[in-house]
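Handout, section B. The chain below has 407 residues.
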Amino acid sequence: MVGCFNPWSIKRTLDVSLPNNRATFNRQVFCKVNGVVKRLRLVKSGDMSKLLPSRPDKISSPMRLCLMVAQTGPAGLWSPSAVAAAELAVDEVNQQGGILGREIEIFVRDCGPDATTAAQNSLALGAEALIGMFPSYARADVAETLGGRIPFLYTPQFEGNERSADIITTGETTEDLLRTALNVLGEKRSVRKVFLCGSRYRWPQESFAIARRLIAEAGGEVVGEHFNNLEDEDYELLIEKIRESRADTVVPMFLGLDSVAFNRAFAAEGLSGRVARCIPGFDETMLYSLSPDETENLFTVSSYFAGHRSANNGAFLERYYTRFGATPPPINAYGQSVYEGIYTLAALMENSQSSSLCLLRQGLGQVLPRRSARNGRGMRPVGTRASVLVAEAQGYDLNIIASGDLR
């Protein structure tokens, strides 16, 4: 470590450009991902006939960990940061002695464009655990395919209400995020007429049932709802519905690049000056692909922002930039979730001295991870709620305007 390192002084420059052309963007992400994966001791997949490895003959044999992310499509913009954060976590855990005395050997799989492809790709040869950072539409199918035979940790924010015993979730839920965001936003401006819109899949659809209840509890009303199919960037009808509804607030829950396209269209129609946007899931990577005049009155909520000034995040950013240099993939909540997911897996396995999902679950809420970038200072038990942060877009920064239960 460099003693005088100041993580807050780093100039935010993009290592991956975000052009309007989706196909071009996906090619750039894919190349960037490969560049990072090569440093992850990637082992190419071979015969897919076996899901689980045989028990290693030597305790020193590497533990094969599969990281599943979306490398293309709307969620592909988060892949570079997810892979880089995974590399950092694996390097650190291996330097600390690995998991149960075994070094981690990580490899990356693409979840593909749909649940069926994700389930097929989760059958990674020799994987002893899987870290999943991909859209909710694939989570249940991957869990069903794995069948609890190896640990499956799902790390991004999600809609909540996950009841499968075959999944350990580490991300924050819509209930936690939206309740806090609506309360904070309601103190700053009128949140009486709310329009809900998003991509047509599990995360927005289930989240809107929660949003309707929270908005009613806050004294507001939902004045309209609309869904677009994934990768459908025609927002003309939606914009007209928002304008006719006379909403004072919009809650858009579009996935990744679809969210970027929506926010561009929203601003182009002149709505950003008078209608607030409250966007769970909006992060720095999406912000950097918009111009400052496209982010007026844009608010977001998460348990992690790169600009959060805290002891935990400062130490994390120092390690991240020391490892990857001044222009790594922009770190964000999605990449950070992978970092924390690997440390969660390590803590649970060390506590139980096992990879059994049943035994791992017994440590939730009790054991501490070795490291975390979230919260203020110190570690919180794995599986417990993190602090929630509300931020407002100002230029190319997400400035935190409210936080809860920070240490």
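Note. Residues 1-58 have pLDDT under 50 and may be disordered. Compare this with the example in section A.
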